[in-house]
Specification:
The protein is of the alpha/beta class. The protein is built from 4 helices and 4 strands; from the N terminus they run βαβαβαβα. The chain is globular, with a radius of gyration of 13 Å.
Length: 90
């Protein structure tokens, strides 16, 4: 089963995504803070990561750069921001 890590401070997002991904035989692990997500990434095997842009501790773009410096894992960015710059950078 493939494993995906969701790093998002919205606790309500995890349960419905877990159910959705399970239908496709994908396991979802969640972290509410970048530091928790980085610890999970460093201690386990994940096939992809989903990052929120607006996070506590550091924004999703900085987190993406940190992950990319250590891994070539595929990353999907989530954003509620509507500015063109945010969508292009993400």
């Amino acid at each position: 089963m493939s494993r995906i890590l969701l790093i998002d401070d919205d606790a309500e997002l995890g349960p419905p995504l877990t159910q959705y991904f399970r239908r496709f035989e994908l396991e979802l692990a969640t972290a509410g803070r970048p530091s928790e997500g980085l610890a999970l990434l460093r201690s386990g095997r994940f096939d992809a990561a989903i990052l929120d842009v607006m996070l506590p501790e550091m924004d999703g773009f900085a987190l993406c750069r940190t992950i990319r410096a250590e891994s070539d894992i595929p990353i999907i960015m989530l954003t509620a921001r509507g500015e063109l710059t945010d969508r292009v950078v993400g």
